[in-house]
Amino acid sequence: MRILTPSKSVLLTLFIVTLANTINAQDQNLTVNQDPKFEQLLNTKRKINTSISTNDTYKIQIFSGKSEEAKKTLNDFKREYTDIDGTIIFNTPNYKVWVGNFRTRIEAERNLADIKKRYTSVFLIKPSK
Hints:
This protein is of the alpha+beta class.
């Protein structure tokens, strides 16, 4: 193995430092053109993620039965209550329509009283994960 003299070491170090300072990587600006539908898709995904049930939320079940009737019930509910989200859950052998994502029991019971005027067999549930 060959050992460099101190003057050659200094010259090699200066050369490497000079070379490193002159290299410019990725100095350009990047413009990304994306489809506007992509942003809509992200917003829809965010909305779905917020409606996923957790242990500390309450929901109201407004229907339990066949698939077609559950879809019809959910569509009717969404037309009448635009500010409350709803979903269909399959629990053998029935399809259930759950609405709302209420953080407190009081909030859920207030909405339950209002929804009971339109749908007869409704009740409050606290689903597990």
